[in-house]
Design a protein that fits this description.
By secondary structure, the chain is of the alpha+beta class. It contains three helices and six strands; from the N terminus they run βββαββααβ. The protein is globular.
């Protein structure tokens, strides 16, 4: 059995939900710190982020890694995989849906074979497994 691995992030928050603000840090690696606040959910790209964007980044990374590993395990080392994850948030309901859009350059594998592996990764990467309760849509290019 493999040894468990724990990754950590930290958030410091000041104030109430609607007027407050915070900062989230990737504590394990120390490679990034993000400003976060509630009001910026609708104003993305203005120097702050939100939990849904961080969730999307986590799933996009995990999905790409799982897909590349599954492809390589079948003898098809990918030249590249590009994954975009869109996480839909509705106030009062939470995260209501996830859309994964993926394309890849995989020598020796046809489009049908790539799509089958892409579907597998949608259901089986560890972060996707943790998000089983959220409906996921897959678009393959």
């Amino acid at each position: 059995m493999p040894n468990p691995s724990t990754s950590s992030a930290k958030t410091h928050w000041e104030g109430n939900l609607f007027q407050g603000k915070g900062q989230t840090s990737l504590a394990t690696s120390g490679v990034a710190t993000f400003d976060v606040n509630w009001g910026k959910r609708e104003a993305a790209g203005q120097g702050t982020t939100n939990p849904e964007e961080l969730l999307a980044a986590s799933l996009a990374t995990c999905y790409s890694m799982a897909l590349s590993n599954e492809l390589a395990g079948e003898g098809h080392d990918p030249s590249s995989i590009d994954t975009q994850v869109d996480v839909t948030f509705v106030a009062g309901q939470g995260v209501t849906g996830i859309k994964i859009t993926v394309s890849g350059d995989v020598p020796g594998l046809d489009a049908e074979g790539f799509k089958a592996k892409a579907e597998w990764a949608k259901d089986n990467c560890p972060i996707s497994q943790a998000l089983k309760a959220v409906p996921k849509e897959l678009e393959v290019h």
